[in-house]
Amino acid sequence: MTTAATAPPSRRKNRRASVLAVVVAFAVLIALFAVGLVRRLNEHATAARVAHNSAALPALAVTPAVSEGWTRELRVPGDLVAVTQTMVYARASGYVRKWYSDIGAHVQAGDTLAELDTPDLDQQLAQARASLSQKVAALKQAQANSDYLQVTAQRQDTLARQKLVAQQDADQANAQAAVGVATVAAAKADMAAQQATVRQLEQLVAYGRVLAPFAGIVTQRLIDVGSLVNAGAAQGGALFQLQATDPLRVFIQVPQTYAPSVHVGAEARVEVRQYPGRAFSGKVGRTAGALDPTTRTLTTEIEVPNPAGELLPGMYADVRLPVAVSHRVVRIPSSAVVYDATGVHVAVVDAASTAHLVTVQPGRDNGTEVEIVDGLSGGEMVIVSPPAGLSNGTRVQATPVATGDAGQEDGG
Question: Which three-class secondary structure string do you get for the chain?
């Protein structure tokens, strides 16, 4: 029987090779385990450092800068006003005898709004008519006297030619006839003046009927029966307020950037809160033709048809008007603009979460958003509210926030 001591050398050699292979395999496994362990430890350390560094970075809200196109819809606020409105005053002094139209009444031009008792004017008119009668009688008397003097002068001339009276008597008669003609002319002038006075008083008495100057709606009644009214706006108060409500007007202020693109006849849409989801059609009726030097805006009037009377004067309205711009602008939140001693800047964040201060040229600011006319091209991630002391190269933790509608421009 063969023992280990007496085993062949080849068998002992194979056994040693097997043992060596097992040892080598075990060593390789240990090495792989060590490498994996070190890698995992390194990954955990790196993640811990990143988490620590991220926790140390300031978290700032960012929003993309919106590049505007060449055309857009401008939205500006305005108030609806009547196309024609006036306060109705009395042209005659007196007392209100009766009124015919209360607030909300629809009236036509020439309708009687109220009647006045004018006792003082009635008395003055009666006196003026009596004086006119006196003037008429005086004119008749002067005419009769003038006719008599003319006949006398003719007789004196005939007798003077026949040498029956002195020439002096004829000359005196002719002079008296001329005086009679002048007296008649003066009497006629007096009568014409008195006739004018009578007509004036008759017209003032006729003003005792207060008439509507145009068709519209009575929006205020400021009198009652027995109220004392004085003639004119300086001494007396108004009796009624009258407004014409079809069409209505909306006055808006168009910023300088869009003023060149606003033309008479351009279509506009008018929206009021009382009719959500509904727009009333209107047109640009006229513009001021010049910018207000204080606000740099163009006063523009929008005419809105209102045949059904759905719109009321005094309503607040939003006007949407298509406009064009001469240069492309970028829109960002107003809080994103930094004004300091070195100029005007906007903080943008790149793909590596690094903040950079970009010099910009701001345009119109509507309170919530500002237009950037130079310095940004659109699409940059802008820090909404840069903290004080933010400098170039500062790493930040950017948090995107929602943006508004980029196709609509608010001109409020």
Answer: CCCCCCCCHHHHHHHHHHHHHHHHHHHHHHHHHHHHHHHHHHHHHHHHHHHHHHHHCCEEEEEECEECCCEEEEEEEEEEEEEEEEEECCCCCEEEEEECCCCCCEECCCCEEEEEECHHHHHHHHHHHHHHHHHHHHHHHHHHHHHHHHHHHHHHHHHHHCCCCCHHHHHHHHHHHHHHHHHHHHHHHHHHHHHHHHHHHHHHHHCCEEECCCCEEEEEECCCCCCEECCCCCCCCCCEEEEEEEEEEEEEEEECCCHHHCCCCCEEEEEECCCCCCCEEEEEEEEEEEECCCCCEEEEEEEECCCCCCCCCCCEEEEEEEEECCCCCEEEEHHHEEEECCEEEEEEECCCCEEEEEECEEEEECCCEEEEEECCCCCCEEECCCCCCCCCCCECEEEECCCCCCCEEECC
Answer whether 0.85 is exceeded by the pTM.
no
Output the six-digit token pair for 257.
């950037």
- Distance between CA atoms of residues 83 and 60, nearest Å: 51
pLDDT tens digits, one per residue of 145-204: 989 888 988 888 888 888 888 888 888 888 988 998 999 999 999 999 999 999 999 988
Structural domain spans, the chain: 60-70+328-410, 74-82+242-324, 92-116+210-238, 119-207
pLDDT at 133: 92
302-335 pLDDT tens trace: 999 998 888 989 899 999 988 876 667 788 999 9
Q: Which CATH number fits domain 60-70+328-410: 3.30.2090.10, 1.10.10.10, 2.40.420.20, 3.30.450.40?
A: 2.40.420.20
Find out whether 237 and 304 touch, Cβ atoms under 8 Å: no
Token pair for 155 = 């007789």
**25-30 long-range Cβ contacts below 8 angstroms, 24+ apart:** none
- 348-366 residues labelled b (16+ CB within 10 A) or e (exposed): bbeeebebbbbebebbbeb
